[in-house]
């Protein structure tokens, strides 16, 4: 994999390049973003990234790898804060209360650890208007309410724009282009506008987008059969099966659905159901 970036934990780069399949574009952007952020000794703005793509393509997996390598206690660190709308913000009638609680939580935890990591999962299910509670913390500023938030990192995760990414990939494939030729500029404006205009999304008409507070809209491309096969091998290794018959691997791969129905180029669910399918055979 590419040369290491001295300012980042070596384990972060190793884990991303070795354990994530088919997401070279996303990984390269994330590493550059983290490098620029960590090299700045006195940042005036938090790093804000939004991960977009269909289920099973590695968005949550990569966010966990980042947390694992940023803190000694990894995903168990008290400086990692994860929010799930169905768990933490389940009642849309309580949005004003949730907004106040969220702002207090961010302020309190950044006061303890300026380099806190905040991950917001399932943005497509976030109640309308709630996420704007984080807007005041994301501007370029020396301090807000007496605290500097510049060293913090915010990650938003959603399936929003996944269909548009898939359409672009299919279009590129039909033009005989490779996934390596896809660039961020081909997808980033599309993802921003799709998120902003999607009424079913927590980003709908959000100040975060309108005020350009999200630094990177990162596309996660649909996985091809070769990537899913690697996921199957990794799952088998995690279960202690270091020697695995090729025909069994291919059999498991054939049980996963692909799209479009005619060409069957991309995996419909990425690697999301791989563990379940492997469990049926071992």
Automatic annotation (TrEMBL):
Matching InterPro entries, A to Z? P-loop_NTPase, TOR1A_C, Torsin
Q: How does it sit in the membrane?
A: Peripheral membrane protein
Q: What are the recorded GO MF terms, alphabetically? A: ATP binding; ATP hydrolysis activity; kinesin binding
Query: Which reaction does this chain catalyze?
Result: ATP + H2O = ADP + phosphate + H(+)
**Keywords (A to Z) from UniProt:** ATP-binding, Cell projection, Cytoplasmic vesicle, Endoplasmic reticulum, Glycoprotein, Hydrolase, Membrane, Nucleotide-binding, Nucleus, Signal, Synapse
Determine the domain of life of the protein's source: Eukaryota
Which SUPFAM superfamilies does the record match to this protein?
A: P-loop containing nucleoside triphosphate hydrolases
State any GO BP term from the record.
nuclear membrane organization
Segments forming domain Torsin-1A C-terminal: 223-279
- Report the subcellular localization: Cell projection, Growth cone; Cytoplasmic vesicle membrane; Endoplasmic reticulum lumen; Nucleus membrane
KW Nucleus (keyword) present: yes
* GO cellular component, as recorded: cytoplasmic vesicle membrane; endoplasmic reticulum lumen; growth cone; nuclear membrane; synapse
Q: Name one Pfam family in it.
A: TOR1A_C
The similarity annotation says: Belongs to the ClpA/ClpB family. Torsin subfamily.
Quaternary structure and interacting proteins, as annotated: Homohexamer. Interacts with TOR1B; the interaction may be specific of neural tissues. Interacts (ATP-bound) with TOR1AIP1 and TOR1AIP2; the interactions induce ATPase activity. Interacts with KLHL14; preferentially when ATP-free. Interacts with KLC1 (via TPR repeats); the interaction associates TOR1A with the kinesin oligomeric complex. Interacts with COPS4; the interaction associates TOR1A with the CSN complex. Interacts with SNAPIN; the interaction is direct and associates SNAPIN with the CSN complex. Interacts with STON2.
The name of this protein is Torsin-1A
Organism of derivation: Microcaecilia unicolor
Record lineage: Eukaryota, Metazoa, Chordata, Craniata, Vertebrata
Gene name per UniProt: LOC115472543
